[in-house]
Amino acid sequence: MLQARAHEAAHEEDLAVRRYSEALTIDPTNAEAWLGLGALRIKIGDILEADRVYTAALERVPSLQRALEGRARARWALGHHVEAEEDLATYANLGDNMGALRELADWFGADGRAPAQLATWRRLLVAATRLGDRGFETEARRMVRALVIVVDGADPASSPIDPDPTRRAMAHVARRGG
Question: What is the third-level CATH fold of 1-95?
Answer without folding.
Answer: 1.25.40
